[in-house]
Amino acid sequence: MSSKRKGLVFEVDITGFSHESRGVAHHDEKVVFVDGALLGERVKVRLTKPHRRFDEAEVIEVIAPSAERVDARCPHFGVCGACSLQHMRDTAQIGAKQGVLLDNLRQLGKVEPEHILPALTGPLWGYRRRARLGAKWVYKKNRMLVGFRERGSPYLAELSRCEVLDPSVGERLEALIALIGGMEARDRIPQIEVAVGDNATALVFRNMDPLSVMDRDRLIEFAKTSGLHLFLQPAGPDSVHRLWPEEGELYYELPNHDVRIDFLPVDFTQVNGLLNRKMVDLALELLDIQPHERVLDLFAGLGNFTLPMARRALEVVGVEGDEPMVRRGEESARRNGIANTRHVVGNLFEPDRALPWMQEKYDKILLDPPRAGAMEIMPHLARMKPGRIVYVSCNPATLARDAGILVNEHRYKLVSAGVMDMFPHTSHVESIAVFEPKK
């Protein structure tokens, strides 16, 4: 029965907006999640995925548009799955993301911030500095594809450019298509890792087999002409090695803190460089570090927060699970002339209370965990009794869960929270929250 309903066309009124940035409607006593629809619109839709308890559909015609609807800038919008909100005014995107954050805090964490922070915003286009592009030679079409997957599909979209990628890559998709499509190994290069620094852009080509001399020469010539740094990855991340130029670091700067951080193209760095600068500034403002204070930085990575905080604190202890990143964080501290940091390798998902850093006293704590959040470490943070905790989050659901632990189990209060638009035109919600002990 459900398969027969697929493709059914009908009209609905959009009465809600989901956390996945889809319109919410009702039809035949079922909830329908509608791709491409905005709150308040009447739309004609096509049923794409029938389910027993809800349905999924896509817009085929906007009958009564929302005042927040705008024309998408990208010609591939609606086909490419990388962006889902280009049809929504940027200010409305911020409002929707703020709503997602607050809904998660209330519903999942049972907490409410005393203050809502103004949204932190940055560039809307050409901002994306990190990406993993798929690459595939399609025999039936006799052509190369490079880019992101189609919306709701495992197949790569046919892209000619990308408006959100840094222009050094976003405006070169057709050149990359021609480059790989002319190689002998065109069907053995499944992905390209993109990493953009303040000084250069690097591409890491995943080559399943050793490249021929002709293919290597072709890549080197492309690198020389474009100015891009090219790397090869024949196996796992540890196999990444430079092809051209023979040397040269990638780096980004945090000028307000006199910090430069060098990184490898496979290291984790924030996607949006200008927004990251603002985020670091905001986090330090919220922490209000004093010269006599000791600060703990959890999930410290390369030292994105550790090194700027060290400019203000007596000492900063940075804890990170990835040992190579810890060592590079130490090296960055030395290069920046920073001597008041300690860089510790630690599994924060299985915290060991016996470790020396776990038994020390900290005045302030900052944490920036991955999407899984930091549930396991939260009781230990409460035990340390810092005067303030700043939590940077890339997942409002796990932030809400962890906030609930601090507030409802450990006598902390949620002083403030707000969104940071790290990924414009997508449903991704980056946020920041401040906790203090209850009096």
Short description:
The chain has 439 residues and is α/β, with parallel strands linked by helices. 23% of the residues lie in helices and 29% in strands. The model has no long low-confidence stretch (mean pLDDT 96).
Task: Outline the low-pLDDT stretches.
Answer: none
What is the C-alpha radius of gyration, as a whole number of Å? 24 Å
Mean pLDDT: 96
Helix content range: 10-25%
Number of strands: 22
Oligomer: single chain
Overall, the morphology is globular
Q: What distance lies between the first and last C-alpha atoms, to the nearest angstrom?
A: 60 Å
Number of helices: 10
The largest sheet, given as strand count, sense and whether it forms a barrel, is: 8 strands, mixed
The proportion of residues in beta strands is 25-35%
Structural topology:
Layout: H1 2-5, E1 9-13, E2 16-17, E3 23-27, E4 30-35, E5 42-50, E6 54-64, H2 90-107, E7 115-116, E8 130-138, E9 143-147, H3 167-170, H4 173-181, E10 191-196, E11 201-206, H5 213-226, E12 229-233, E13 241-244, E14 250-254, E15 259-263, H6 273-287, E16 294-298, H7 306-310, E17 315-320, H8 323-335, E18 341-345, E19 364-367, H9 378-384, E20 388-393, H10 396-409, E21 412-420, E22 430-437
Parallel strand pairs: 4-6, 7-21, 11-12, 16-17, 16-19, 17-18, 19-20
Antiparallel strand pairs: 1-5, 2-3, 3-4, 5-6, 8-9, 8-10, 10-11, 12-13, 14-15, 20-22, 21-22
Helix pairs in contact: 2-10
